[in-house]
Design a protein that fits this description.
By secondary structure, the protein is an alpha/beta fold. The protein is built from 11 helices and 12 strands. Helix 5 links the parallel strand 4 and strand 5. The chain binds pyridoxal-5'-phosphate (PLP).
Amino acid sequence: MIPLVDLKSEYEKLRSNIQKEINKVIEDSSFILGSNGKEIESKISRYTNTKYGIGVGSGTDALLIALESLKIGKNDEVITTPFTFFATAEVITRVGATPVFVDIDPKTYNINPELIEKAITKKTKAIIVVHLFGQPADMDPIMKIAEKHNLKVIEDACQSIGAVYKGRKTGSIGDAGCYSFFPSKNLGAYGDGGIIVTDNEEICQNAKLLRNHGSTKKYEHKMIGINSRLDELQAAILKVKFNMLEEWNIKRREIAKKYTEELNGIVNTPFVEKESLHVFHQYCIQTKCRDQLSSFLKKKNIATAVYYPIPLHLQPVYKYLQYKQNQFPFAEKVSKNILALPIFPMMTEEQQKYIVSSIKEFLGDNYEGD
Ligand SMILES: *Cc1c(COP(=O)(O)O)cnc(C)c1O
């Protein structure tokens, strides 16, 4: 079986270093908010050219804590994309605010900046921008709109660590950037983890309080927070894996380039913005016979996945928001046609050739245009 991601093959490359780091943490027996966490925080903030990094328990918590650090909550509205992982909108609802969706640009799958202004009301406080699949969203017009209307911008960079928009790393452009260290992300831990990066001292201080029961001094609580820290074992593993991030992102781009060379004209291949650096957390194609292709590939022992089959405005839990079918035609169309192919840094040429020839074998008979 060719899997979607192959974490074992990454581990094999790093085995001895990772085991050494894990052992060190256990020997030192300092497991929470220790030196490894601090090191990975400063590595990531330096890498993204931001002042502060605040390690937290997951990418979802990074988004949640970023919203709370900006004091966004009850009666507020937050604009975001309906075509993303559920957590992006979930955290908006969790803090007591209302997600307001606007449609995507069908080329990049990211929020369409031209549709944002129409969605702004007196209650709008922020925009959560997602850099989906590792491709930077168009930040310049978004930042301009935010400035004009006095809105905060949070970047959901969970899929885009290392991606660059006009010379700047995604996550470093808005007020706060959120990354996930979920195992399959481009920089993945061996469990859950996440980080917030920011240049804003107040956001940093609030986030440090919020992740630790509102406390930085033992048993003195200044805020109602939660328990959401990046633990030392994960931080130690991330220190080792961080050294591979650039090289492995380059590998992902090479694999993506080869896919596109082979599949262009047969399926709809990913559009890549010229001024951006895409890090291909996912390589997604579009085809009208998506479901048939997916089952054919499964029979050929090739794993595929659909990100995401139901746009968020049509999720059962958001029925109360009263969005309608066809309200966001592009998000809805893409969710019907999109299919993620296997992509991981250690993918072999042979594996990729087999995937490409299997797709060609199927679509040779079934191609009906996009
Ligand atoms: C993975 C992901 C998250 C959530 O990260 P977790 O670490 O799994 O909590 C949020 N948004 C997007 C776009 C993601 O891909």
